Amino acid sequence: MVHNFAIRSVPRRIVCLTEEPTEILYALGEEERIVGISAYTVRPARAAEEKPVVSAFIGGSVKKIAELEPDLIIGFSDIQAQLAHDLIKANLPVLIFNQRSIQEILDVIVTIGSIVGRRDDAEALVRGYVENLEAARARTEAQARKPRVYFEEWDDPRITAIQWVGELIEMAGGENIFAGASRGKLAKERFVDDEEIRRADPEAIVASWCGKEVDLDSIRSRPGYDAVTAVDNDELHELDPAIILQPGPACLTDGLAALEEIIRPLSNR
Fold this sequence. Notes:
Low-confidence stretches: none
Helix content: 40-55%
Structural class: alpha/beta
CATH superfamily of the largest domain: Nitrogenase molybdenum iron protein domain
Mean pLDDT: 95
Oligomer: single chain
CATH class of the largest domain: Alpha Beta
Largest sheet: 5 strands, parallel
Strand content: 5-15%
Shape: globular
Strand order of the largest sheet: 3-2-1-4-5
CATH topology of the largest domain: Rossmann fold
């Protein structure tokens, strides 16, 4: 048997199990490589019209993914560990990132760019994001003070901001009241309770519940919350998970801007 080997531009058929690799590949002009996406993909908007949905977040159809004959499947976090296991067991090529910080998000963008032969373009994207972050930091340094902010990623149990969200709160001029917990890698390390929240007395409560609409009235009605400054001043806000809980370009741009819009007016009160 004669084998003809060559240097190929691979991967050519990529399945994205979360939104951020899809958004990155579109930003790099490499969307033609994408053959499957997550049901939670909303950025860019046209991706949902152009690409077949093959997964949710925790689960996905191994059969449907395999039928697409991917030469790379990109996922995110320990939460997708079982899905990754099932895909690997089906002899499929899987790459799982576990970015938690802003720096790690930037690193992943460069890594994905490198994988598809667009490292220079990925680095250019990252330089733009860094400039945006540094501009926000400069605005923060000019503030009179940092308002106390509680970010809620889930309501039952209460889960506070993951690391990159906590860092973005600081970039936007706020004080993440649970900065220590935000460094926890696992969701259970970021559990908080109402007593801790009341004691910290946030001036703004920002909620983004991944997979369901935030019920601001239910937050207001929690026992003892009527004495919390954020509730008393009606500073309860909902953010779209697509712009803050996806560890990719969205949170570095629209997510940061949304946080600034909430936090900066409070800094002069």
